[in-house]
From TrEMBL:
Topology with respect to the bilayer: Peripheral membrane protein
Assembly and binders: Heterodimer; heterodimerizes with SNX4.
Location of this chain's protein in the cell: Early endosome membrane
Chief location category: membrane
SMART domains named in the record: PX
Protein name: Sorting nexin-7
The encoding gene: SNX7
Record key words, sorted: Protein transport, Transport
Amino acid sequence: MDMNSFSPLMPTSPLSMINQIRFEDEPDLKDLLITVDEPESHVTTIETFITYRIVTKTSRGEFDASEFEVRRRYQDFLWLKGKLEEAHPTLIIPPLPEKFIVKGMVERFNDDFIETRRKALHKFLNRIADHPTLTFNEDFKVFLTAQAWELSSHKKQGPGLLSRMGQTARAVASSLRGVKNRPEEFMDMNNFIETFSQKINLIDKISQRIYKEERDYFEEMKEYGPIHILWSASEEDLVDSLKGIASCIDKCCKATEKRMFGLSETLLPVVHEYVLYSEMLMGVMKRRDQIQAELDSKVEALTYKKADTDLLTEEIGKLEDKVECANNAMKADWERWKQNMQNDIKSAFTDMAEENISYYEQCLATWESFLTSQTDLHLEETSEEKS
């Protein structure tokens, strides 16, 4: 699959294998196609940053044209994520890659880092595009279509500093109060999130260690072929055998390199993305709890008549509706996310298993072929000696 396909990190779609098959077989069903490519470095007297080209093709009527091309930097992606969380506090927003260093990267803007980030940003936007609610968010549309100066102007239209400070203060107060009676289904979700977070973080660490050990093994194995070639120059009777061994090692090196590439492209990005998802899920649960905590505090105030009763009753009615909407949104998104997660992780591990089987079969066939040729050669030599 090339870089412009639906998901550059793994051979499934941004959401699931089912969606990928449907969209590839019937591309007309997908009405919003987004590609992130062509990273470009910018150096100013103040900072150095990378922008990425975003090409959007759509058949949706709410767009003014069928194709758009803009450039965005990482900060713009952060802005979009923040706006989505603000508009949909209990929906599961896809995670962005980390702001600075990705595991294994030493230099912030080396080629590997930039390419890894490009793929993750591509996946981030396509997951939003495939989300039944987020895809129609107005800020998402502006992000995809507005030129740089238009986006900058649009950003300034957001809530003012005092308003944001007020929202933050209320959120902190709500979190300090906590939730007295979290519904059982959300208790189950919270327990799942905590367990999932522990397991996926452990898998991420193990996967990274496996990749490092595989890379070290590959670097060492590359040295064996040339050594056997040098050795053959001083062993006249073993020239063919030693060169044959060197050839086998070279083929196994190439197979190992291919398996390393599969690991880095198929498994590692998927596992790490769900590490980031686990952090996002904790944030979603916290925002849901904050909404409920705000309702609980108003109910408590009404119980003890700490304020105007009529005003409190009206506020409680609005908050009850808000809590119900938040709960329903989270429950619907939760089931959708779990299904996609299971599809993605199952596909990643299945692909990795197939890569491993192919690798061992290839290496086994290489060495069996060499041993067979050596056996045949030995039989020929024995036959000649007898005659």
